[in-house]
Amino acid sequence: MVHVAVPLPLARLFAYQASEPLPPGVRVRVPFGARVLTGLVMSADGAEPSDRALRAVIECLDSAPLFTEEYLRFLMFVADYYHHPVGEVVFAALPPALKGNRDPGDRLRPAGLALTAAGQSFDPVHFGRAERKRRLFAAVREHEILTPATLGALGAGFARVAKDLVDAGLLARVPVPALSCAGTPGPALRDDQRSAIESIRAAQGFAPFLLFGVTGSGKTEVYLRVIEEVVRGGRQALVLVPEIGLTPQLVARFAERLGSAPGVLHSGCTPTERARVWRAAQTGHAPVVVGTRSAVFVPLKAPGIIVVDEEHDPSFKQQDGFRYHARDVAVLRGQRAGVPVLLGSATPSLESYRHARAGRYTLLRLPDRGAGRVQPAVRLIDLGAEPAADGLSPSLVRAVGDTLRRHEQALLFLNRRGFSPVLLCRDCRWHAPCDHCDARLTVHAARQQLRCHHCGHEGPLPATCPQCGGSHLMRVGEGTERIEEALRRTFPSARIARVDRDSMTARDTFTEVVRRVQAGEVDILVGTQMLAKGHDFPRLTLAAVVNADQGLYGSDFRADEQLFAQIMQVAGRSGRADLPGEVWIQTHHPSHPLWQPLTQLDYEGFAEFALRDRELTGFPPYAFCALLRAEARDAQGAQTFLRRILSLRPLPPGLTAGAVLPANMARRAGFYRAQCLLSAERRAVLHAWLRDWLPQVHGLPQARRVRWSVDVDPYSLFF
Ligand code: ADP
Ligand code: ZN
Ligand code: ZN
């Protein structure tokens, strides 16, 4: 009898008979109701089923397990932690190509090429005029084992030529060898870097580290050294980066330093590429895997270290379905696998920082920006005293002008795309609403559209007010499009580039903008947070936050933390010793207490302040939370449902449920939404209650008609 996880929102395993012994970790086809599903064998026992009606496994899809039993236990543990159906957790750990019933075996064959015995003694003159065969053959002979990356570099169509030569028996497909670590040597380490590396090296088994240093302080250099050593010792490294951080530049830097390209996993990869990297990681042929959020689940044959770069980044939190936080899963994984976990950030999450302060994580500081770098000067612009036109105050316009005269570059950061967030009728006060959400439509001037940034609804931009017919429609507030337009009017000869989701349609467009900025072909950059991260722009000396107030009195408990991180990131883009940088921040609230640590770019000062606030208000990391959410078509349905399920089981002492309230955006994409925050001082109290309560909820017939979810450790109370 085998116990199988199926990809359905059901919190249990299902038993099947098997005619042959099946090891845990293989995929099987099983009958399920009237359907046939692909499932994964979680455990097997020799017990004969007492229930003769037990249905039988139809077929087994794998000749060898995809996961070890230890790894399956880890997935069960994660499912238990997030109180999420085990089948969905298991299937989140599989690449798309392995989720179906097809066996992609052939496409996942070893991808390196080597000469066969026949190939060794073959004389390429026999290729005659087949120039491409000759080139490929020579390349394989030169490299001994030709990697897929090198094959790709030969040009388009060589995969086809490779197949011909394999079919002809001259080449064979072989596993790609582990990294040689024969890359370019790095710079001489500074003392702070050396001592950080030494403490990580001294770790025995699981050990969490928080590597705290501003952008450019040399964190990546520390990762590279530690990874090099792990790989030399025959083990693997998993590196998680935010969605936006996985740039070709980062991959190229890893490739150059480590001697060959890391396996890369992100949503832009094709299913075949993903499955190939996944398989290489699982079999130990990929010594280094770099990926975004979901890569935290890639199985490793011999894990040696897990690195989470920019560990505070919101993109590590999955916001729907299986709502895990990849950084937290990485720590759990390191704990189970007995390997060090290295979290890096210039602005650590308050959770990680508190762990470090309490001694649970080892805090490693990289205080230096190294030779040639200084912290920029930060200035506040009081928009009350200095009104802005089109979002730009006179001081900011002057500062941009000065920067252009010095032939340096300026960056203007605004976390809102489009032209303006509100279209308002001056006569009747109508403002363009979304018909499906409690939200206003954003004006997109270039495409002459009104768009909802929450549900995706789009419509034409009206010329007259649909309510009163008047023609005095005003565009209130500013987005990146408006800032760009205002800059073009004010600085007609400046070369301006805008970077946001509307202007960057393909991945390459962003890379191209980065190249143009680095080549000095751009004077002013305007954009959203896409801009703020991870690029070196040596001539950029002015960074401005156009509207910092969005985060100031935001009612979400993490708003201040996010604002601080964004400002630090923007500031990190500005200035070098030979070209000192400045940061300008526009605000209507210059006396807000957050500005004190923010203008000093003093993360630890900020963290003290913010932690005190969290403690007083009872939010993480001083409380352990789960957010219950529900959505329904009718206005009361979601709230009624939440009240009903909360009444199923009394709350123990130490666990409190807040009021059942409409969500911050009470209606979205046609659904009314409600939520309720559960909060406990001790994690165990919350989890024990959830464990007993959830089966009761699942037993309720309404629970199948309402969309609802439990978000353990919610990132935000706004969704
Ligand atoms: P971070 O990851 O913290 O942003 P990096 O490791 O990318 O920092 O380092 C920033 C820059 O400084 C890089 O160009 C890197 O090559 C360089 N660098 C890092 N460590 C050193 C060092 N010890 N000596 C000289 N240059 C260094
Ligand atoms: Zn009107
Ligand atoms: Zn909408």
The shape is globular
Report strand order across the widest sheet.
10-11-9-12-13-8-14
The number of helical elements comes to: 20
The biggest sheet amounts to: 7 strands, parallel
Which strand-content bin applies to the residues? 15-25%
Small molecules held by this entry: adenosine-5'-diphosphate, zinc ion
Q: Would you mind describing this structure in some detail?
A:
This protein is of the alpha/beta class and 719 residues long. The protein folds into five domains: 2-103, 3-Layer(aba) Sandwich (GIY-YIG endonuclease); 108-174, Arc Repressor Mutant, subunit A; 191-366, 3-Layer(aba) Sandwich (Rossmann fold), CATH 3.40.50.300; 377-418 and 478-614, P-loop containing nucleotide triphosphate hydrolases (Rossmann fold); 624-712, 2-Layer Sandwich (Alpha-Beta Plaits). Helix content is 30%, strand content 21%. The chain contains 20 helices and 30 strands. The chain has a seven-stranded parallel beta sheet with strand order 10-11-9-12-13-8-14, with helices on both faces. Strands 15-25-24-16-23-22 form a six-stranded parallel beta sheet, sandwiched between helices. It has a five-stranded antiparallel beta sheet with strand order 2-1-4-3-5. Strand 10 (263-265), helix 10 (271-283) and strand 11 (288-291) form a beta-alpha-beta unit. The radius of gyration is 28 Å and the shape is globular. The protein starts with a strand and ends in a 7-residue tail after the last strand. The mean pLDDT is 90. The structure holds adenosine-5'-diphosphate and zinc ion (ZN) (2 copies). Residues 187-190, 193, 213, 215-221, 370 line the site of adenosine-5'-diphosphate.
